[in-house]
Amino acid sequence: MDLHELGDTIRRTRVASGISQAQLARMAGVSRATLNYVEQGRSAIGADALLRILPPLGLSIVTAEMPSSDSKRAIESLAASASVSYKVPITPNDVERAVVTGAIEERWLPHIATIVDEASDPMLLRAVREISLQTSVPATQIWRNMKNLAHAVASPHPRWI
């Protein structure tokens, strides 16, 4: 939802509720000018103010996992992208084994280096969630193992510091 859609939703709900901007602003503890800018989609609003504006209107923030742009499992995507530059591809099972155990076979070091250096944060986090669900290994342990693997391949990526 963008700023204009958010503003429209707040305005429509406020109007349908029969209250003025000033009344809603008082209820929410924000200025009328702030509410006006938000309703017009002209200004981003802080989470604190938004969380005060929505309840009087009976609205809430609903979070959901963003749909993936690719239908493959994250671990399959990581294995495929890590294998592009290499003659022998790493399998999703080999990637999973490495992040679950924290140990890598010597032959997969370049592949793992590619994953920890180049994979996006959303892709890595999605892979951690998937692997944790499949293996019952806590996500915190998988992430810790990934960090150890990153150190083992001397990854310069700041997320591993």
Low-pLDDT regions: none
What is the distance, rounded to the nearest whole angstrom, between the alpha carbons of the first and last residues? 33 Å
* Rough outline: elongated
Task: Give the rounded overall mean pLDDT.
Answer: 89
Count of discrete alpha- or pi-helical segments spanning 4 or more residues: 9
What's the helical proportion of residues?
A: 55-70%
- State the assembly state of the protein chains: single chain
Total DSSP E strands: 0
Biggest β-sheet strands, sense, barrel: none
What is the N-to-C order of secondary-structure elements (H for helix, E for strand)? HHHHHHHHH
For the record, the count of structural domains works out to: 2
Strand content: under 5%
The value of Rg in angstroms is 23 Å
